[in-house]
Specification:
Length: 335
């Protein structure tokens, strides 16, 4: 509604009615969306996504969990025991999960807005379809464990069988090599540099490979950042001073032993994931990667209008769970 009685616009009366009858609003021809949030982890996984295709278990990953040969000592005569055949390879199998965002386009809406739209509603819906899809993917990435129609998120992909005993068709109880490092603190523990170093080395000790990065909630990340603040130091070169240029303070990422830690607004507070992007990625169908179906007429359903959809087939795949770690019940700032 117009805001009467504010600024230069009169509050009421004949002048107000006249202005209302003959004056258009001065619109800003942009739609400012208030709903969605960006997420560092989703951006990283999409940028490293790999291609999948059709078939049963369209993502089938051969993995080795046991030694396939044996070693023994030999003496001067060079004799050795005849080796047996030891199976060591099995398949981890994953199905792609479907996400569909329907986009309605009523026929009368198009006729009404034609040449008279401030914000074309169909364009707003098309833009929103991508945002809604990404928001749902982000939620499932950090939360989904039981919905088999959706991607199995980090709670199941990075686990030691506590929350998901079978992953990719492989029992983590029988195949301990398919377990991630899990630390569930009995009481909230403050995130500090020393604790993060301990967690990094707990994950590294299992495979000899350091995680690539850590991700945690922003409240937890902020509390960790405060452990760095007292160690900040400002260096001024001989040819400059504090009055010239700017002095940068605090951090975009917190570096511990070469591993950057990021705050993600969608990560549950109190939870830290240490991840290795070499073994964790989205697998997206080559024919259904945020694919727009095009608009089809609704006339057969007795309606003047059109319906389209954005369709995506993908799954979060962790081919080496032991390269990752999950750490629960960290304290955080209530921001």
């Amino acid at each position: 509604m117009p805001q009467f009685g504010q600024g230069i616009i009169p509050a009421q009366g004949a002048l107000t009615n006249e202005l209302t009858a003959v004056t258009r609003r001065a619109y800003i021809h942009k739609l400012y969306v208030q709903l969605w949030k960006s997420t560092p982890l989703l951006a990283a996984l999409l940028s490293h996504a790999q291609v999948a295709s059709g078939g049963l278990s369209p993502v089938t990953v051969p993995i080795q969990g046991n030694p396939m040969v044996s070693i023994q000592n030999v003496g001067y005569d060079g004799s050795f025991n005849q080796p047996g055949i030891t199976p060591g390879i099995q398949n981890a199998e994953f199905n792609l999960k479907g996400y569909l965002t329907a986009i309605p386009f009523p026929g009368m809406e198009g006729l009404v807005q034609l040449d008279f739209s401030v914000i074309p509603l169909i364009e707003a819906r098309m833009n929103d379809a991508t945002n809604v899809t990404l928001d749902r993917l982000t939620f499932d990435l950090f939360n989904n464990l039981t919905n088999q129609l959706a991607i199995i998120g980090l709670p199941g992909a990075v686990d030691d069988s506590t929350f998901l005993a079978t992953y990719g068709g492989i029992s983590r109880t029988l195949n301990t090599f398919f377990k991630s490092t899990l630390v569930n603190n009995s009481t909230p523990v403050a995130p500090t540099r020393n604790l993060m170093l301990q967690y990094i080395n707990q994950v590294t000790k299992v495979t000899g490979e350091m995680p690539k990065f850590g991700v945690m909630g922003l409240g937890c990340w902020t509390q960790l950042a405060q452990d760095f603040t007292s160690a900040e130091r400002y260096n001024v070169s001989p040819t400059s001073s504090f009055g010239e240029g700017k002095v940068e303070s605090l951090f975009r990422a917190l570096d511990v032993a070469g591993v950057p830690f990021y705050g993600d607004p969608n990560c549950p507070e109190g939870t830290l994931y240490l991840l290795n992007i070499d073994y964790l990625s989205f697998m997206i169908h080559d024919r259904a990667s945020f694919y727009f179906t095009g608009f089809e007429s609704l006339m057969p359903q007795g309606q003047l209008g059109y319906l389209g959809a954005v369709f995506t087939l993908l799954e979060l795949i962790n081919v080496k769970p032991k390269a990752h770690g999950k750490f629960l019940n960290l304290s955080f700032l209530p921001i």
